[in-house]
Design brief:
By secondary structure, the chain is mostly helical. The protein has 2 domains: 2-73, no CATH class; 96-307, MetI-like fold, CATH 1.10.3720. It is built from 13 helices and no strands. The chain has helices at 2-29, 34-39, 45-55, 61-73, 87-122, 127-141, 144-158, 174-208, 211-218, 223-248, 250-260, 266-275, 279-307. Helix 5 (87-122) packs across helix 11 (250-260), helix 8 packs across helix 11 (250-260) and helix 10 runs antiparallel to helix 13 (279-307). The longest helix has 36 residues, at 87-122. The radius of gyration is 24 Å and the shape is globular. The N and C termini lie close together (7 Å).
Length: 314
């Protein structure tokens, strides 16, 4: 397994290089000039040229890229154009809030999706199955910002059960932290819940029709043991793939949710930086998101071996 992990890490290098090129080019070719944001009303050509020179924007794109990637390799992600704060520091400061939101959303998704998908597969065609299918379709179809607005109106404004917006660190006050994260986590995790439920159901239906399940039943194993001990573990392999992608996509998925709930995470930082034409911060956030995808895919491949011992890493 060590050889496999090392090989995958080596293969990440060219992928990371292509990602950095794509991120840099797309952001710098997007219309807009950060100098206009910085200068405000004073937009004389001389002032704009001076800002371009200070930020290095007067150099050719390939020169800017080489300077940027060299700094990134050495641990310097640059400074924010608008606040002059180190990019790495700005992201690190907001990362715990995004991680907490993503983890709670993922836990909520799995706690609902796996049991519901399993029951829907075992009772295929029943009322529970049809209800689960309807929930899955609705969860995928309705955008998370609309779900967030509905949750705010119903559970925060009307019922006053949960606070609207705000963030409390978990280790500062666990109970208040969970109350504040509940609504954004439900909004963020609803689409994932629907997808995970559908994959669990489909995979369970397929596994329950295999020969070893019939053999286990013929040997006298209880139906509950067959479902939860023999079938569910193998049925979760496709679900792990989807969950891995969801883990990698926490930052992207949190962009809208954090904006709706004024959650001070990396996603909201990205939105603010895009509006301010803050190239360096946007590059840092997108780069972090890309790396999270690559690491999540590696972890998923390793989990495969735990779920199915037949998988070899040779």
């Amino acid at each position: 397994m060590t050889t496999y992990v090392l090989r995958r890490l080596v293969l990440m290098v060219p992928v990371a290089f292509l990602v950095t090129v794509g991120v840099f080019m797309l952001i710098h070719l997007t219309p807009g000039d950060p100098a206009l944001i910085i200068l405000g009303e004073d937009r004389s050509p001389q002032a704009i040229a001076q800002i371009h020179q200070e930020l290095g924007l007067d150099k050719p794109l390939y020169v800017q890229y080489v300077i940027w990637i060299d700094n990134v390799v050495h641990g310097d992600w640059g400074r924010s154009i608008t606040t002059h704060e180190p990019v790495a520091g700005a992201i690190t400061e907001r990362l715990p809030a995004t991680i907490e939101l993503g983890v709670v959303a993922l836990i909520w998704s799995l706690l609902v999706a796996i049991p519901l998908g399993t029951v829907a597969a075992v009772r295929r065609g029943s009322v529970v199955d049809k209800l689960a299918t309807g929930i899955a379709v609705a969860g995928v179809s309705v955008p998370n910002f609309f779900i967030g607005i509905v949750l705010i109106f119903v559970l925060s404004v009307s019922a006053r059960l949960f606070p609207f917006g705000g963030y409390v660190p978990f280790f500062q006050d666990p109970w208040e932290s969970l109350r504040h994260v509940a609504l954004p986590a439900i909004a963020l995790g609803t689409a994932g819940t629907a997808i995970n439920m559908r994959f669990t159901r489909s995979s369970m239906i397929e596994v329950l029709g295999l020969d070893y399940i019939r053999t286990a039943r013929a040997k006298g194993a209880s139906w509950r043991r067959v479902v939860f001990i023999h079938a569910l573990k193998n049925a979760l392999i496709p679900v792990v793939t989807i969950v891995g992608l969801q883990i990698g996509g926490i930052i992207e998925g949190a962009v809208v949710t954090e904006t709706v709930f004024t959650w001070p995470g990396v996603g909201r930082l990205a939105v603010e930086s895009i509006f301010n034409r803050d190239y360096t911060v946007v590059q840092g956030v997108v780069l972090l998101a890309a790396f999270s995808y690559m690491v999540a895919n590696l972890v998923v491949d390793l989990v495969y071996g735990w779920l199915d011992p037949r998988i070899s890493y040779a």
